[in-house]
Amino acid sequence: MSGIFCSLRQLSVTYGRGVAAALDGIDLDIVAGERLAIIGESGSGKSTLARALAGLLPEGARVGGEMFWPGLGHAPRPGRDFGVVFQDPGSSLNPVLTIGEQVAEGARRHLGLSWKQAYVRAEELLGRVRIPQPEKTMRAFPHQLSGGQRQRVAIAAAIAARPALLIADEATSALDVVVQAEIVRLLDGLVREDGMTLLFITHDIALASGFVDRIAVFRNARLVEAGPVRSVLSAPKSDYTAALIASHRDLATPPLMAEVLP
Ligand SMILES: Nc1ncnc2c1ncn2[C@@H]1O[C@H](COP(=O)(O)OP(=O)(O)OP(=O)(O)O)[C@@H](O)[C@H]1O
Ligand code: NI
């Protein structure tokens, strides 16, 4: 389980004419089955990387460089090979569809299941993400659940089609610390059990270092450094990363960084 899942070579993304690149010349290998954290302050290009990988860039975005997918063995099928969980499950869950319908939909469409089979799978998935009373929750609507439970449902929907890569983009940032830890534990368990590769995007280097295998640090559209958690934490290659570790918290507040780095 140490083959290369995906190789990025000089990957660049620009959203429009006359604007700075959102990603600039990224060389990065993602190892099959690893849990890789993408760390960086607001605007550094983390979500752009997620969208580029998952085939979710908006129309008009210009992509340069190359992406190879040796771990897939075929051209990526957006929606099928990738599961994505965002910060706000409200935006990924449809308020007028039941939880059961939304989780079943991915399994039905991508795995070719009947609705009946997909509902059985959806209920299993709700159990896997530890939603209490899955059978009852199948018939509930998103607004009837807590934020943490909605995020569990979003995770169930994201893995319904058995993706090879799960991307969690600030998936825990809107949750309180206790629920955050529960969701991290859940994601960690799911990717281990299913052999998925996990891209864990976060502002919070402390949260990520607690469970991932490797860390990639982004700043201003560039990859600053990438390596195993232990080596990045004990011997960061850049002053920027060293400052991050010293400040040891959350990059959501840029002023903090301004204090540490002139
Ligand atoms: N749809 C878009 N159209 C135009 N510019 C965009 C778009 N999405 C992002 N950008 C710009 O691209 C750059 C990188 O944004 P991106 O969302 O990837 O950063 P991020 O690291 O995910 O930030 P955050 O932590 O705030 O989510 C920013 O300058 C942002 O303003
Ligand atoms: Ni983002």
Question: What is the topology?
Answer:
Blueprint: E1 4-14, E2 23-31, E3 35-40, H1 46-54, E4 62-68, E5 82-85, H2 89-92, H3 99-111, H4 115-128, H5 134-137, H6 147-159, E6 165-169, H7 177-194, E7 197-202, H8 205-209, E8 214-219, E9 222-228, H9 229-234, H10 239-247, H11 254-260
This protein binds adenosine-5'-triphosphate and nickel (II) ion.
Adenosine-5'-triphosphate binds near residues 15, 16, 40 and 42.
What does this structure look like?
The chain is α/β, with parallel strands linked by helices. Helices cover 39% and strands 23% of the residues. It has one domain: Rossmann fold, CATH 3.40.50.300. Helix 3 crosses helix 4 (115-128), helix 3 packs parallel to helix 6 and helix 4 (115-128) packs across helix 6 (147-159). The structure holds adenosine-5'-triphosphate (ATP) and nickel (II) ion. Residues 46-47, 169 line the site of nickel (II) ion (NI).
Estimated structural class: alpha/beta
CATH superfamily, please?
Answer: P-loop containing nucleotide triphosphate hydrolases
**Principal-axis shape:** globular
The profile of the biggest β sheet is:
6 strands, mixed
CATH class: Alpha Beta
First-to-last CA distance: 42 Å
Helix content: 25-40%
Number of helices: 11
Spatial ordering of strands, largest sheet:
5-6-7-3-8-9
Cofactors, ions and other ligands in the entry? adenosine-5'-triphosphate, nickel (II) ion
User: Quick check: average pLDDT?
Assistant: 91
The tally of domains stands at 1
How many DSSP-defined strands? 9
Beta-strand percentage?
Answer: 15-25%
Low-confidence stretches at least 5 residues in length (pLDDT < 50)? 252-262
Specify the oligomeric state: single chain
Rg for CA atoms: 18 Å
Strand/helix succession: EEEHEEHHHHHEHEHEEHHH
CATH topology: Rossmann fold
Tell me the CATH architecture. 3-Layer(aba) Sandwich
Keywords: ATP-binding, Cell membrane, Ion transport, Membrane, Nucleotide-binding, Translocase, Transport
Family: Belongs to the ABC transporter superfamily.
Main location: membrane
GO molecular function: ATP binding
